[in-house]
Amino acid sequence: MLGGTTEATQLATALAKTGYDALFSYAGRTNRPVAQPLPTRVGGFGGADGLAGFLKDDGITHVIDATHPFAAQMSTNAITACGNTEIPLVAFERPPWQAELGDNWLSVSDITAASLELPDHPARVFLAIGKQHIDAFAARPEHFYLLRLVDTPTQALPLPNAHAVIARGPFDEAGDLALLQEHNINIIVAKNAGGQGAAAKLAAARALGLKVIMIDRPHIPARRVLGTVGDVMTWLDHSADLGV
Ligand code: NAP
Questions:
Q1: By the 8 A CB rule, do 205 and 99 touch?
Q2: Would you state the CATH architecture of domain 104-215?
Q3: Where in the chain does DSSP place strands (E)?
Q4: Is 86 left (phi over 0), alpha (psi -120 to 50) or beta?
Q5: Ligand 1 mean position to 217 CA, how many Å?
Q6: Which residue's CA is the closest to the ligand 1 atom numbered 30?
């Protein structure tokens, strides 16, 4: 199981209650990963070929890709590796968020496009995209950026006027409302991750009438996608019954 999301942890909890011999894989992006109720490994595999070799060497019979919807490289590698080794693969993926009445969203295709959509005058931006790719906003140094990171940064941030809050989700609306007000935020930049853990900022933005620059999900090649823990467990049970 390829993890790294709140939903992956929920699935790991369900898997741990079964007799399946499951292994949880983290990329190793954070210094303090959430402990899992499954045997856990950390680190990349060395591309699709490395993953294929790992799957064969470890006698893996099924792969569940429960990575973040923006982890497109890992998901694409899983498709390639499982295709080449003929190992069944399923993606456990939450649906994208949809704008609701009262939302003021601007959808953009990627992070660079999001940076270009910031206003010309100095704004106070909640840059809710994690620590990767914040460099893209170094070209817009006129803005104040509020970051929310899992780990305390060990190097200077590439943004001259930024403040980092160290926190791990899930977050709630009252907390996010207070955070946005405390820092006088007027624009949010977010990835369309979907799920509950990071949705509070969108409800808070709606309550405050703030604009959200919403980055669309990256393209991932076609694969089987399931949306609930129950569906993934049924898929596993069914595959096991059929001996595939
Ligand atoms: P990515 O760009 O798709 O992956 C880059 C490389 O990191 C992969 O090619 C792979 O290295 C390694 N990798 C990624 N996920 C892995 C996993 N679960 N186990 C082992 N190796 C993994 O992914 P990313 O966007 O950097 O995200 C890294 C991890 O953080 C993912 O597990 C994801 O679920 C989690 N995450 C990402 C985001 C986000 O916004 N991107 C947000 C929250 C959590 P090799 O090619 O060497 O195998």
A1: no
A2: 3-Layer(aba) Sandwich (3.40)
A3: 24-26, 40-42, 63-65, 89-92, 104-108, 124-128, 144-149, 162-166, 187-191, 211-215, 225-226
A4: left
A5: 14
A6: 4
Do residues 64 and 2 touch, judged by C-beta distance below 8 A? Answer: yes
User: Ligand 1 pocket, 67 CB below 6 A?
Assistant: yes
Positions of CATH 3.40.50.720 in the chain: 104-215
Distance 118 CA to ligand 1 centre (A): 27
Query: By C-alpha distance, which of 150, 98, 145, 143 is closest to 122?
Result: 143
pLDDT in tens, 8-18: 999 999 999 99
- The verdict on whether omega for the bond into residue 170 sits within 30 degrees of 0, i.e. cis, is yes
- Which tens digits make up the pLDDT trace of 30-82? 988 999 999 999 999 999 999 999 999 999 999 999 999 999 999 999 999 99
Among protein residues, the one with the nearest Cα to ligand 1's atom 27 is 71
User: Does the C-beta of 95 come closer than 6 Å to ligand 1?
Assistant: no
State the Cα–Cα distance between residues 65 and 80, nearest whole angstrom.
12
